[in-house]
Inverse folding.
């Protein structure tokens, strides 16, 4: 029996069948109530434990401007965590102030840095070479560097972004030197950022991580004589993708982080840094799902259930072997009739959304929901095999609003001038 927070919605066959009929499938569906609830829960946990804090939503998780605008309405002080000029652009479309946001690139081009600088966003540099490129364009009044503390953790090795095998950040033993270099170039206001992996559900990991970040921050301050204005622990807070997993106890986590933070800094000091957080998946991951239709059934060496949502619709299972819950629309608690592989229509054998998955009996035309697709779902969707990308809709009190229209074949080739 599933315990997913959107289970009641998936059980509403009448509503979801109406969505499928009106908007087609595959279809990305988002719950505005769940999205706002997730953000408010996180904000309250921070407010209960920190006097100075700031949330920057990780736009890479889902960059639809309508969803960003909803987050901004829910929490007007929210900023954006951007990894490209396009994400800065999307956040600005939604009304999020670049001055409240952070740009974290890696191996950035001059054009990337110039766009970030011109938009007035806080620039978080990945390396001393990034500082050299930025200096040729112009220097902002404040920067931060991304720390690689020498360790990391993620749900998969592919999304572990700290440690000796990671391509990101300044090594721990070099972090003070790059800040000193920035001081010598005339920069005197700083933050420190660290992001070591995504999808973590272990609270103890974040306390270990924050301790390492604070140790590095204190060393930088001792060398430069400059106090950090903010210290960011990045994102990485996971969500349960399986029924047997439990959500991270966010209130307990923030309480534990506050005890560590204020053992290094006096919370009553006017110069006490703010804690920054850059969540994506925690806010939007379980607020979205894919509504898909069964296109074919096949008994071969394995049992296959073909869907109109393949790896072009949701890449994570093929890319990471990521697990997503699959629920039969209208009957989310039906008993399995056997094990099947879910596949799409893409001409790749890696086009598997689930393998050996216990599932109820289905027929062609039945509707299936692929859960927890709000983060890194549409953001990774493609036009592979010349399949147009799906529509996205936002549900608010049962009312649907199209927030991205479905592409058609002409959209795929719109920029190909044959004249």
């Amino acid at each position: 029996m599933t315990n997913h927070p959107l289970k009641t919605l998936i059980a509403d066959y009448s509503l979801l069948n109406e969505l499928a009929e009106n908007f087609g499938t595959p279809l990305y569906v988002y719950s505005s109530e769940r999205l706002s609830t997730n953000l408010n829960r996180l904000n309250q946990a921070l407010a209960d434990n920190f006097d100075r804090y700031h949330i920057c939503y990780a736009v890479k998780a889902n960059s639809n401007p309508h969803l960003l605008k909803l987050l901004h309405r829910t929490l007007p002080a929210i900023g954006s965590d951007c990894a490209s000029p396009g994400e800065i652009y999307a956040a600005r479309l939604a009304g999020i102030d670049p001055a409240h946001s952070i740009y974290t690139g890696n191996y950035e081009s001059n054009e990337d840095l110039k766009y970030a600088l011109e938009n007035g966003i806080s620039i978080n540099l990945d390396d001393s070479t990034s500082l050299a490129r930025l200096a040729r364009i112009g220097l902002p009044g404040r920067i931060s560097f991304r720390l690689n503390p020498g360790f990391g953790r993620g749900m998969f090795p592919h999304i572990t972004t700290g440690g000796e095998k990671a391509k990101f950040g300044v090594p721990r033993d070099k972090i003070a030197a790059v800040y000193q270099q920035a001081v010598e170039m005339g920069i005197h206001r700083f933050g420190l950022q660290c992001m070591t992996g995504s999808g973590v559900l272990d609270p103890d990991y974040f306390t270990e991580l924050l301790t390492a970040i604070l140790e590095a921050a204190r060393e930088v301050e001792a060398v430069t004589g400059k106090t950090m204005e903010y210290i960011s622990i990045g994102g990485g807070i996971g969500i349960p993708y399986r029924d047997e997993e439990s959500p991270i106890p966010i209130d307990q986590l923030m309480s534990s982080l506050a005890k560590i933070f204020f053992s290094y800094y006096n919370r009553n000091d006017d110069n006490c840094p703010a804690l920054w957080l850059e969540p994506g998946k925690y806010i939007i991951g379980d607020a979205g799902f894919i509504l898909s239709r069964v296109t074919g059934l096949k008994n071969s060496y394995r049992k296959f259930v073909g869907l109109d949502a393949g790896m072009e619709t949701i890449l994570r299972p093929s890319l990471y072997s990521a697990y997503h819950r699959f629920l039969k629309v209208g009957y989310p608690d039906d008993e399995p009739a056997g094990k099947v592989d879910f596949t799409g229509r893409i001409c790749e054998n890696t086009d598997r959304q689930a393998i050996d998955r216990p599932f109820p009996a289905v027929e062609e035309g039945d509707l299936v929901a692929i859960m927890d697709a709000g983060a890194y779902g549409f953001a990774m969707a493609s036009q592979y095999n010349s399949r147009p990308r799906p529509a996205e809709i936002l549900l608010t009190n049962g009312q649907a609003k199209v927030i991205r229209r479905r592409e058609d074949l002409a959209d795929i080739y719109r920029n190909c001038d044959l004249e």
